[in-house]
Amino acid sequence: MAAVGGSPTRALRFLFGYGLRARSAVAATLSGPRGLVYEQHGEPAQVLHLKDVALAKLGDFGVHMKIIAAPINPSDINMIQGSYAILANLPAVGGNEGVGQVMDTGNSVTTLKPGDWVIPADAGLGTWRTEAVFDEKILLKIPPDIPLTCAATLGVNPCTAYRMLCDFETLDPGESIIQNAANSGVGQAVIQIAAAKGIKTINVVRDRPNLQDLIDRLKSLGADHVITEEMLRKPEMKDLFKEIPKPSLALNGVGGKSATELMRHLRQSGTMVTYGGMSKQPVTVPVSALIFKDVKLCGFWMTQWKRANAQSKDKLETMIADLCTLIRKGQLVAPACQEVPLVDYQAALKISQEPYVSVKQILRM
Q: Is the CB of residue 204 less than 8 Å from the CB of residue 182?
């Protein structure tokens, strides 16, 4: 396929136009459940193919679900590339997150019934497909009265934000946190959940041509302060801390110098939680931060948390219920999304990997 320059919108128009004949040809060759399958690791655009996929047998504890929508997340791309912490057995269907509706259940299933909305309770299930049969224990029921884009993007980024705000420091209303990657899916969820709790946020983003648009967008979500990586390193930061207290919690999704600067602005005995490494640079820790400021460094991975709490879904269900309550109140919205038909997955993949893209691609099945 020829490369397409210009805006994401132009790329979508070209690729959708190009794909009309291809879409008909592909659809004509597929007769049953379909999915985006990869048989080897590599760049998603090269190794993913839309194919018929076999359904597992329903069995006693199986749940047959129709998948409605599934987002494209950075971790999905990394898994296909072969660079993520967990890798599926090949051949595999892409996608770790999404929302579906129960169509049928095995005789021994007790927690779900046809018509229920469900999301994965674990990663690696392969959600970029039209239908699937999964075990009851790895699905979680959610209320059907939340927006589809919120449901499709509920299980990863909002949960990550929720846990990091709850599990590492006791944060009272009026206190503050600082985070980089503030325009990411996790960052936007952090802003909104913190605002609902009365917690102030200092949000660090990369400089870009449309910076003011991004600042306005994040402030509309409840951000108190939005600054660039360059501003983070300036002496003027002292003036900011005349308005709000120094943060006791820093959330790092970038690594490298950005993480070091976050640590520098933590209060005494504060905590920095690392959940990502977008810069692909190591976290460098000044000795003074450990000795004189007693800074604590932690890591967090939502997949590991879910697996550690898999024996009892109580914590997971409570978290999902809390997040859904915020959604219903209008205090938590999904990131800006572009819904794309499954057959046009190439366009969605292209846009999801472009720099400075803040519109999440959602595959509609």
A: yes
Per the CB < 8 A criterion, the answer to whether 159 and 302 are in contact is: yes
> Which alpha helices (DSSP H) does the chain contain, by range?
8-29, 44-47, 74-81, 148-152, 157-167, 185-196, 211-221, 229-232, 237-240, 256-264, 287-291, 302-308, 314-328, 345-352
pLDDT at residue 255 is higher than 80: yes
72-77 contact pairs (CB < 8 A, 24+): 72/348, 72/349, 72/352, 72/360, 72/361, 72/362, 72/363, 73/97, 73/156, 73/157, 73/185, 73/360, 74/276, 75/123, 75/156, 76/128, 77/44, 77/349, 77/352, 77/353
**Would you place residue 30 in the very low, low, confident or very high pLDDT band (cuts 50, 70, 90)?**
low
Cα–Cα distance measured from residue 75 to residue 123, given in angstroms and rounded to the nearest whole number? 10
HSE, side-chain direction, 13 A CA sphere, residue 24: 4
Cα 349 from Cα 355, distance rounded (Å): 13
Q: How far is CA 351 from the centre of its chain?
A: 16
| CA 190/CA 201 separation, integer angstroms | 8
Identify whether the C-beta of residue 352 lies closer than 8 Å to the C-beta of residue 361.
yes
- Respond yes or no: is residue 18 known to be catalytic: no
Euclidean distance between CA atoms 293 and 94, whole angstroms: 43
- Choosing from 38, 84, 275, 345, which is the catalytic residue? 84
CA distance 178 to 79: 29
Q: Tell how far CA 269 is from the center of its chain.
A: 29
| Tally of CB atoms within 10 A around 350 | 20
Q: What's the pLDDT at 102?
A: 98
Strand, helix or coil at 84? Answer: coil
CB burial class (10 A; 0-12, 13-18, 19+) of residue 254? Answer: buried
Between the alpha carbon of residue 150 and those of residues 52, 221, 226, 363, the distances in Å are: 28, 15, 24, 14
Which pLDDT score is estimated for 3? 38
Residues 6+ apart with CB under 8 A from 75: 84, 96, 123, 156
Q: Which residue has the tokens 């990131």?
A: 335
pLDDT of 10: 44
120 forms beta bridges with 139
